[in-house]
Amino acid sequence: MKSFATFGNELYTGERSYEFVGKRRIWFSITFVAVVLSILLPLLGGGFNFGIDFRGGSQFTISQVADTNVAIGQEAVNAAAPGTEAVVTNIAGDTMQVQTERLSDDQTIAVKESLQDAYAVSDDNVTSTFVGPNWGQDVSRQAIIGFIVFVVLATVLMALYFRTWRMSIAAVVGLLVVMIVTAGIYGASNFEVTPSAIIGFLTILSYCLYDTVVVFDKVRENTSDITKSTRRSFAEEVNLAVNQTLVRSINTMMVGIIPVGSVLFIGALLLGAGTLRDLSLALFIGIIVSTFSTIFVAAPLYSWLREREPELAKQARKVQQQRAAAAATEKVDAG
Asked: Residue 129 forms beta bridges with which residues?
């Protein structure tokens, strides 16, 4: 604990520093590759695995089962409706969920009876419903509208708060990177895209924006009188701000992913709480990607957008001249 505190103090004072802004070409290249792969991998894998809420179909819920083996449900469906692909999930301790394509009334009755016999439960413990695709389409449409409204409001509010549109642009680019990469990793995992996953994606937006604002607020503090300073250039002050908030970003990320990771790995994967997998996976990926996006994309991009301004370019030259003069003086004194 003491070493980590010392590490954070060294970052804050500038005694220890990592080059985030100066190596932005490397980070941007890695980000570009990650974005391209996030788009290509789900496409090469056949696209996203949309859940029944988006594609429509029949759904059966079997409660009070003694054996939660998914193979039992798959065999029961295949026996009653040959050729029908079934997705069987243990959604709770003794409750199974079976999803199929849309079945006819006769097929629905046959599958229900087959599941009842296979899991050795009574007729009251097996329920069947039909889910139409329209509801999922409405959720998708509302999610897209919500995303657009969020981005527009975030752009305007950040521009007003920080008094520069360049911070807004950098923050929005960071948001887009987070959404694309998170969606790409989620799609590559072949997890079902459900309404819960969509909620998880939208929740990530607020986390990403929060982390970005924390870093940008420190950037604004460090660069408030940058034109009068000859100690550091604008890019160096931005890099210092990222280093000064690095420990906080890491701590915030860990506080987020520990409970979410517990839900994902212990609750969903080990205990079989299937209803939590989609939400927790989206959050787990998004929190990690958001932290890296702020550090390696948003902050370096903001520096790149501004450091070419005439006043900042002039100030950077003054810094270099001051350092050159100081180095020459030291050389003379040493001689």
From this structure: 59
User: What is each CA distance from 200 to 90, 281, 286, in whole angstroms?
Assistant: 21, 8, 8
Other CB atoms within 10 A of residue 138 CB: 12
Q: Tell me how far apart the alpha carbons of residues 87 and 65 are, in angstroms, rounded to a whole number.
A: 17
Rounded CA separation 190/280 (Å): 14
- The segments of the chain whose pLDDT lies below 50 read 1
pTM for the structure as a whole: 0.82
Cα distances (angstroms) measured from residue 127 to each of 38, 116, 122, 123, 132? 38, 10, 11, 8, 17
pLDDT value at position 313? 87
| Cβ–Cβ under 8 Å, residues 165 and 110 | no
For the record, the structure tokens of 151 come out as 């981005």
What per-residue confidence (pLDDT) applies to 334?
Answer: 65
24 touches 301 (CB < 8 A)? yes
Give pLDDT, residue 335.
Answer: 58
What is the pLDDT at residue 216? 92
Neighbours of 154 (CB within 10 A): 20
Burial of 244 from C-beta contacts in 10 A (0-12 / 13-18 / 19+): buried
In the structure encoding, which two tokens stand for residue 117, read together? 């016999």
Structure tokens at 219: 């950037």
For residue 189, give the 3-state DSSP assignment.
coil
Under 8 Å between Cβ of 121 and 63: yes
Short-list 288, 247, 245, CA closest to 264 = 288
Integer Cα distance of 111 and 171 in angstroms = 51
Tokens at residue 122, please?
A: 């009574």
The CA distances from residue 251 to 11, 60, 297, in Å, are 14, 43, 19
Query: In this structure, how many other beta carbons lie within 10 angstroms of the beta carbon of residue 14?
Result: 13
Q: What angle do CA 184, 190, 196 make, to 5 degrees?
A: 80
